[in-house]
Amino acid sequence: MPTYTFRCKKCGEEYTVFTSYSKIDEVRCPKCNSKEKERVYRKISFSVQGGSSSSSCGGSCGGCSGCS
Ligand SMILES: [Zn+2]
User: Fold this and answer.
1) Which of 7, 39, 50, 51 could pair covalently with 65 via S-S, beta carbons 3.0-4.6 A apart?
2) Where are the bilayer-spanning segments (predicted)?
């Protein structure tokens, strides 16, 4: 099942639930039990390491491929 992250509009709690898309409306805040929420989209950040980029540090670290 997919994971959805929401932020409660009432108390600001952020919570993640495993549910099907059709049941999103029924998801409640674990803290205040409110259904008022907005979807939080997390960006998947994957680090670029190992020389695929020559400008990862801007020439300041002295250790990456851009500094050699
Ligand atoms: Zn809440």
Assistant:
1) 51
2) none
